[in-house]
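Page header: ASSEMBLY MODEL / two components / 783 residues total.
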Amino acid sequence: MEKEQFYYDNKIVKMFLWATILWGVVGMLVGLLVALLFIYPGYLEFAGSDNAISWLSFGRLRPLHTNAVIFAFVGNGIFLGVYYSTQRLLKARMFNDVLSRIHFWGWQAIIVAAAITLPLGFNSSKEYAELEWPIDIAVVLIWVIFGINLIGTILKRRQRHIYVAIWFYIATLVTIAVLYIFNNLEMPVTAFKSYSVYSGVQDALVQWWYGHNAVAFFLTTPILGLMYYFVPKVANRPVYSYRLSIIHFWTLIFLYIWAGPHHLLYTALPEWAQNLGTVFSIMLIFPSWGGMINGLLTLRGAWDKVRENPVLKFFVVAITGYGMATFEGPMLSFKNLNAIGHYTDWIVGHVHIGALAWNGFMIAGIVYWLAEKLWKTPLYSKKLANTHFWLGTLGILFYAIPLYVAGFTQAFMWKQFNPDGTLVYGNFLETVTQVLPMYAMRAIGGTLYLTGFILLAINVIKTAKAGSKVEDELAEAVPLKKISGQRIAGEGWHTWLERRTVLFTILVTVAILIGGLVEIVPLILVKSNVTKIESVKPYTPLELEGRDIYIREGCNNCHSQMIRPFRSEVERYGEYSKAGEFVYDFPFLWGSRRTGPDVHRIGGKYNDNWHFNHMLDPRSTSPGSIMPRYSWLIKNDLNASNLEDKMSGLAKLGVPYSDEEISGAKQSLLTQAKEIENNLRQDPEFVSNYGSSNVQNKEIVALIAYLQRLGTDIKGNTKTALK
Amino acid sequence: MEVVYITIGVSVIVAIIFFIAFIKSVKSGQYEDTYTPSVRMLFDDELVTEDKEKKEKSTK
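Prediction written out in full:
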């Protein structure tokens, strides 16, 4: 058959390349900003300590950092590699240029929307799925566009065999779509506020089923696909074992989806679900290490090239980092190790080995190599790239090792008892101030890594300036012959129909799935409820508003609400958390990290004035605390205008709010707020400072109401429960 | 814990989709040759001399 000529679309690859670099710098810079908040909690209070700036507080910037590095930096890096390699592996231009452009600009628009809404406090509270519902819908739409583009290209390919990298891309496409949709099923109450349709334990399970697979199918499988393309290409060696790569792929995708519950070990999640997560997580080491070995051994007999080629250096450290992270993962899924590591900085160190080494270095290597390919010129400076490599590697070490030390320090301090059975470090703050030097070293590590990445930006800009302007690359390949005996040449309609049917089927399935689920899921879940605890009652209107402030400020980034059944935790925080306590928690707020103490039993522990002063200046009640000041909560009026909508939305999800309760919500809110103001006025200092202001209308009162309610339902204290 | 009907259900459906893809890819011969593909991807098919090739195509 005659060869066909066609052009590869290099323009789109270049667009994603620039986006990767831009968002890489932004995401890492925000990371550094939040890392510095650990050491200098007040350094972003530019308007004075009494006027802390809400959108620069840790709870709002941390989701911005995670979303920026995951979806903006790594996301664009994935698309960069996918758009380059898919065209070449399938010997076809991307299915449709317009779709490619919509994909690119749509994705960037989503990132900008996230960068605006997250600091403003529009936050659904679910980790790595914080974006509110309108943006979620945009994400799904753009993802479907990407899917059509990828599958369309596969269908018009000129190479019958589908190389293993493409399989990894397909798995990414399908699984992320499904998980993202299910985890983000929400009941919208206003344009930028929604409640998860799941509550408590159920929400926790869905969130971490998604959360772990965001790691698995967004930060791992696509990068593995890129590894199977770019490592052999750069080394100019075939992959060590193609057979192993196929086994690697199929075992990895069948095992990964079950691993989520290892994020919830020793929580109120039923034990069988925890064990399921543990078993699959441990099995995961086999495919993961199969992949790592396959990647590293591709360089067998070519290690001399690693010495000369900075790109391969990046790849070697990246794959080694993948091996370390995927060894640590199964280890941390053992319940006894998880009991130590969970809630500590060990986890933060662990994910950064994955993020900085595996994702960051794979992408850096790909960017350097593609800069030469796309602009058809040697790299501006190999020396600069080598400097980046060493700065980055040092950065990773300075980041991770101090956090491992910090993690173990925290865990052992939290658990240490005196011979008389009391906690040695009964004041949680001691365990925070102890690790502050580690946080400082972590910030140095981050600075080194970011500096290295800025060198990459300079290097690529200089390379592009010196290089060729050619956008599309001509290539030729033999078109695919139809295998089917009956339909040979001249039956173009069949190709057309085949393509349409497949696409059509996919679209219809997606549409049905979304539509059906929105209807069915709440129905299944409404009646369900874990073991009922009679004394557990829904939040009062004021507490509900307070809870939404807790979500808005991202308190769950640093405070867990899940006391594990350990002697050390029961001694420190109180009775361990029961599944039945969370049935009205839409969404759940268990958290995953204890930078500060657990707050599930904080209700009634301190008086209202303590909370008021603590929010105004945490250092006044807890010297040495690194919590941000929340002075705006005392200045801002509580906006309860959507209260009835919120309550009726929750009622639809199964919270037993009666019609009278909903119509009398505003009145109930005022009564409870007045009560809290009266409590606050018992402190003469409060009266002299704030006596003239109408504190009952302020946001702080709602937050205090919520905090004082937390964990009290099973204490036999029904005073605050809804009457 | 009714939500497990959803998470397990969806996980199984996704697994079945991938299983079907696996069976189909085996049957269509995707994995009969586990060596050539690893070498084939190393060759570039870009044509460096663009204009000359265009002329050649028209004469072919």
